[in-house]
């Protein structure tokens, strides 16, 4: 005979044991994908749009370490909350497959370059490889529970992004904000390309300050000593400068001084009040080009140009006998030549700050080459005005943006002498100086491979054109991410389903939120604001939240090298490798750790915190199992809806509903303030203290035979148990999406006729259940007694299952009836 189990028994059987994390997290991930839970509704008009300008990671690495994942999951906390706040969430998947990092990776990985296989094939190889990597990353993002709509997918070199970036170029050129000039620009000698101010990192380095005598050969001790750390630039010396207040050099005005080692070439002495009298000898050498001060005086005073360093970091023919030598080697040999002439009057070891390229780690140079540049230094006041309108979380990070704007000293060089990137959409007439910038209807284009759309030059009538070979700085495209996502180029097949004008009207643009790391404030954040100000005369987004860095236990930035270093050879486990941690502890545990720090602060790796996350997962499971065990039967949909409007009669139930209402309101407010750390702290406090430590133990007593509680009290308690557990799941859902979804599917999905917990409202409680003053006093007294009882049991080594005769203990009953005390205290 087959005995059919009722619905409650069937559900309880599923709760017999919590499955392995990989099993149920994978099951939930497949559910979300199959049901399109996170799909942006293109046609919805009743819901407010919440659009996220998500950070597109570089799709050119073998893996993504746990430090990266922390910031991506933090953004997801907000996306999930806003979706549960009844918003139509626009959460695209962007991949950055454009720029120097990708090019360098492909060169190293395959041992090829544009020079060996040609630009077209090299570009195809870059795109094919990064597409594979992007697919791998997409799988990883699903594993860690990112609620991204992967149908809203773009890459920074695809047709859409290229057209958007090139349209930006075209409009900036037409408006006069963009020009090509032959001007000294920051240069990286390893990658042989121009770079921008935002790519610089300043670090302290050891060096030697050389005192070089510029005096006449017949009178080497006349006091004309130049102090410099870069004697190799002596061949590019075009002027000497002194402070007019420096009496030592007052006699040198307009004198011409011979430059050592140059065969008798002379330079003029000039005066400048900005020359530091106390640095070195007080006499300054200006070369073309050693630093930004050289560039500034060269432009201001119309100095001669004698370049010394080539794009590859070697000395050119102007260095005479030292041509072809690398910078460091040439420095040593030039110092030797100066010593032979008796011109080195002293040398001193010093430490000074040096500007380095963030990727090559080489000191930058200033190279004179024609470059495309956006005028930005004249826009500081306008940019600062825009900044005042921007809401930044945490607020202290706003200063970093403003300080960067105030400190801008160069225009933004956007051309790069590389082969892989969005092409600069320009052709040049061979016969004259005419430039043809591609019209919007032709975009995207690649002038290095395609014929110019304009057959005849409108200026000279010529028919021969040559395409630009340089590509755009990757930030030129990434800074357009809000415009890419809102269809600024009005592509018919754009994934938003609307034109740019319609997306502005619907509220998709300006975007609701930009989540990003603090390390790219000066690049992605700044450049995006600059572009939107110039193109749309508005901010690109309403809010920005700035996350910190993921650090190892010692406070150092986690790197890809850490994955190799810490991989266990026998098990393959690595604490910094995301997939390893997911398999061992689960994605929810990683996300729990990611929520354990305030926004903007660096996050130290903590497996202890992840294990606490796992402990929370297990506790949620066990709590859910307990509330089912206390039920007599399962509810219908109608019965469950009635529970939500219940008005509790019994003190313990009124109290827990009141505490839950308080927790949900406060946690919701914290999420609104983008403070997921505080939101989780509030939920943790309620779940572990009010719910688990107190109420569940009280509920156990109500169902205990020894107390003989009324059926009315038991029924009400059953309803409260299943009702509050429902709200607890929602409060944890943005941070712990897998376990909350799994429990929801087992218990609540059919009751509410919803496909996912993430399709429900964050706040489930319909009303506050306030306690009167007498009830508050009683509860406070009972909680105080709880602490005393626990201490008493510990001191007397009494089991928690043993009933206590309070009259035989030393614990005061505080004038509360014994039955009420027993309900609260029996198994505590």
Please give a handful of descriptors for the protein shown.
828 residues; single chain; 4-stranded antiparallel sheet; 4-stranded mixed sheet; 27 helices
Percent in strands: 5-15%
**Overall pLDDT metric:** 88
Number of strands: 25
Rg from Cα: 34 Å
Unreliable parts: none
Distance between the termini: 43 Å
The structural class is alpha/beta
The general outline is elongated
Question: What does the model show?
Answer:
By secondary structure, this protein is of the alpha/beta class. It is 41% helix and 15% strand. It has 27 helices and 25 strands. The strands form 9 sheets. It has a 4-stranded antiparallel sheet with strand order 6-5-14-16. Helix 3 (66-83) links the parallel strand 1 and strand 2. The model has no long low-confidence stretch (mean pLDDT 88).
How is the topology of this model organized?
Elements: H1 7-14, H2 21-34, E1 49-51, H3 66-83, E2 88-90, E3 93-95, H4 100-110, H5 114-117, H6 119-143, E4 153-155, H7 159-175, E5 178-188, E6 193-194, E7 200-213, E8 225-228, E9 237-242, E10 256-258, E11 266-271, E12 283-287, H8 292-300, H9 327-340, E13 344-357, E14 365-374, H10 380-388, E15 391-393, H11 398-406, E16 412-413, E17 415-416, E18 426-429, E19 435-437, E20 465-467, E21 471-472, H12 474-478, H13 481-485, H14 500-506, E22 511-517, H15 521-536, E23 541-547, E24 550-551, H16 560-565, H17 578-585, H18 587-594, E25 603-604, H19 607-629, H20 637-643, H21 651-672, H22 676-702, H23 711-732, H24 737-747, H25 749-752, H26 773-795, H27 818-825
Helix pairs in contact: 2-24, 3-18, 10-11, 11-15, 17-18, 18-19, 19-23, 21-22, 21-23, 22-23, 22-27, 23-24
